[in-house]
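About this split. The held-out portion is used to measure sequence recovery: a designer receives only the structure tokens and must propose an amino acid at every position. Recovery is the fraction of positions where the proposal matches the reference. Here is one held-out target exactly as it appears in the evaluation file.
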């Protein structure tokens, strides 16, 4: 049990994967901007998941964004807080955390959509994973001040 695969930590490495995730999000946004039909295949649509077995959408939805402001604010959050969290966790644990958080947000949203009968909606964006990164930043750095509008210092746990 001591050498269990689940209890063995990843070796600590820092590759700045948060910047790679930002680049991947921007690249996919560019492709979906050129071909909007691609968004239909990447976004989480409960109807497509149930009828067409589009299970890949539970992961791909977090890389598709609705518009420029949507991707801008998600990627700003990942840029400002992701690198600090990644430096604390290590790159591979951060990547696993980011993807599992996004998957969990997608599964939760899918459950809510099914429970409420909202079958023909779509879920886009990395907001669920980015909020998980914000929460982990507040846990790792509880005394950090974040300046709202560049003027008002607010401690990270209060702001998150």
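Reference sequence for scoring:
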């Amino acid at each position: 049990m001591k050498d269990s695969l689940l209890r063995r930590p990843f070796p600590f490495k820092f590759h700045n994967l948060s910047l790679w995730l930002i680049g991947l999000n921007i690249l996919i946004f560019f492709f979906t901007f050129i071909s909007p039909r691609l968004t239909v295949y990447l976004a989480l649509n409960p109807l497509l998941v149930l009828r067409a077995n589009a299970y890949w959408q539970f992961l791909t939805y977090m890389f598709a964004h609705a518009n420029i402001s949507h991707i801008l604010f998600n990627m700003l959050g990942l840029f400002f807080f992701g690198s600090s969290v990644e430096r604390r966790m290590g790159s591979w644990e951060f990547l696993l955390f980011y993807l599992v958080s996004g998957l969990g947000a997608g599964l939760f949203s899918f459950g809510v959509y099914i429970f409420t009968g909202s079958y023909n909606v779509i879920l886009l964006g990395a907001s669920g994973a980015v909020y998980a990164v914000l929460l982990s930043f507040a846990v790792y750095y509880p005394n950090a001040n974040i300046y709202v509008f560049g003027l008002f210092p607010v401690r990270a746990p209060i702001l998150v």
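Annotator remark: The first strand starts at residue 145 and ends at 148.
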